[in-house]
Amino acid sequence: MVKGAGRTLTVAEGAAMISGTGIGSGVMAIPCLIKSAGVIGGLLAFAAAFALSAVMHCLTADMVINSGEYEIPRIFSCLLPPGKRKRQAELLFFVLTALMLDDSSTAPTGVSYDKSTNTLTLENAELSTPYSGNVNYAMHAAVIYSTGNLTIDLVGSSTITYSTSGEATYLAGIVNTGGNLKFTGSGSLTIKNGIDAAGNNKRYYGICSYGALTVDNPTITIDAEKTMTCAEECGVLVAGAFAIEKGTVTIRTWNTTTSSNIW
Known about the structure:
This protein is of the alpha/beta class. The protein has helices at 11-67, 72-79, 86-101; strands at 2-3, 8-9, 111-114, 119-123, 126-127, 131-135, 138-146, 150-155, 157-162, 170-176, 181-185, 188-193, 203-209, 213-223, 232-238, 242-252, 259-262. Strands 3, 4, 5, 8, 9, 11, 12, 14 and 16 form a nine-stranded mixed sheet that branches. A six-stranded mixed sheet has the order 6-7-10-13-15-17, with no helix packed on it.
């Protein structure tokens, strides 16, 4: 029995809370896990994760029961041996916890994001690390990957280099799958195709937008040219309207039957 706020939880209620957390996250994670690791590998990874989770929950329950506390900082304090360094250890624990929860350092140099306006600012940024996601049952890999309306504000000169990434068949500098994409600012952006031989017979795009695409003032150069066998090569692939209100857009692709500047 675990004491709660005002009453105690039964074993069944506590087990239901823990199981609900695991099942809820697993429903979202299992499809991606199976696709990446295969059925056998996915089942083995799932079993290992379940065993680790069970051990961690048992350890947490043991600490709660033995300490009589229900807050992590208080539990940690109870487990520390008495002495002069106990206070320093508590402060170190708080500092490390704060650093773990602080995601401000995850943004690359020259990149910032304003969630309230869905604005991504690139200031003299050099980006090349891709993110992979599933769109219409096909794996996409892009350096900038957005699932909603996004404004990219350009300051100074920034560069995006996209390359081969795992099993992804659609390789791009920027992919926007669920909204409109807009470029603003007085800076410039160069998008380069850095795909190697592992990208043969795949599809390359400088910018791929499943909504509208608007350029308002900046200078954008898309160098999607790559002289290798590809299923498709396109400087800009846009499902909605493509408008250049102000600014300059330069696109270069390899001149073959599978290439196009704008599609």
